[in-house]
Amino acid sequence: MRAIQMVDLKAQYHKIKAEVDAAVLGVLESCAFINGPHVGRFAQALAQYQDAKHVIPCANGTDALQIAMMALGLEPGDEVITPSFTYIATTEVIALLRLTPVFVDVDPKTFCIDPAAIEKAITPKTKAIVPVHLYGQAADMEAIMDIARRHNLFVIEDNAQAIGCDIYYADGSVRKTGSIGTVGTTSFFPSKNLGGYGDGGAMVTNDDAVADTLRMVANHGQKVRYYHDIVGCNSRLDTIQAAILEIKLAHLNDYIDARRRVADYYDQAFAGLPGVTTPFRSEKSRHVFHQYTLILEGVDRNGLHDYLATLNIPSMIYYPVPAHRQQMFAAFGSSEQHLPVTDWLTERVISLPIHTEMDDEQLQHITSSVRNYLTK
Ligand SMILES: *Cc1c(COP(=O)(O)O)cnc(C)c1O
């Protein structure tokens, strides 16, 4: 059996190697390393994929969040509502910009921010909501956009884990996560569903003025070279990464299908297992399974992790400490906050290997091992 990994980047690369190698060598030959033609072409292709007006590439997904918050003119002391149950980047940039993170709880089914909790957390200082489409599952954007409209708030969708996820609206229309809020941000970190071979990120928006400002902030606050109107930063998508991402974007829908096939296999294998909740399948969106995450009740979760490791099956706890309990935020006193669903999930989630290159032999080994542990 091929070794099981959380993500198998090498096997995926080998399937597109000829095309990728030629593209990378082409960039080397052209020496157009910074803002070469691939960058604009990829941005256009991604905008088309997202069905959005503007895509502004940048250096990574964390920068994308930071640039979005800077471009929307958020100022020190402004409150930004965010889930605590997320990767640290989402909440870290809020504090970095001296904004105030207001951590709220998540929905135990979707793992995403709970709209009712957002509503309760709004104060006169609230300026923005940052929903995270966690593990590839969409947050409830219909409810979130409704709250944002009523309270005049910006929405920055952290779409680092859910690129390609469709949301189905009641009127029959379909929209991609990341193209619904004021700005959507994403990451091309190698293990993400659309991953480059290094760092990368992008911002998505349908607002022309916001797009202009995002571009300026990412480029030292300038529109005209050497004339700097606002304080910005330097955040670019590398041309080599853009060339690779251009190729991989054409495969993204197939990659999502491959991930969903793995999720279906797991769902069937774990159906009815006592103590196990498989990922929620919403009728309102199409999960893209960046992670396949189980909730275990009355089961020694860390014991399962260790048992699988002895069988050479990796598994991960995303995330072992929620943001509101991180030392980083001690000054906000957030660890005193009562986020029962977040704390409950933190103790019970476990993510199994899921990627585009898994075969049935590997899946059989993983599922029978999990079943063995749970029924022993
Ligand atoms: C990966 C990730 C980021 C940050 O992306 P980088 O490219 O690593 O900076 C932000 N938010 C979430 C939810 C992520 O998973």
Automatic annotation (TrEMBL):
GO term, biological process aspect, one: polysaccharide biosynthetic process
N6-(pyridoxal phosphate)lysine modified-residue sites: K192
Pfam families: DegT_DnrJ_EryC1 (PF01041)
UniProt key word Amino-acid biosynthesis: no
Ligase keyword on record: no
Keywords: Pyridoxal phosphate
Record-annotated active site: K192 (proton acceptor)
Lineage: superkingdom: Bacteria
InterPro entries reported in the protein's UniProt record: DegT/StrS_aminotransferase, PyrdxlP-dep_Trfase, PyrdxlP-dep_Trfase_major, PyrdxlP-dep_Trfase_small
GO molecular function: pyridoxal phosphate binding; transaminase activity
Sequence similarity: Belongs to the DegT/DnrJ/EryC1 family.
Name used for this protein in its record: dTDP-4-amino-4,6-dideoxygalactose transaminase
Organism, as annotated: Cnuella takakiae
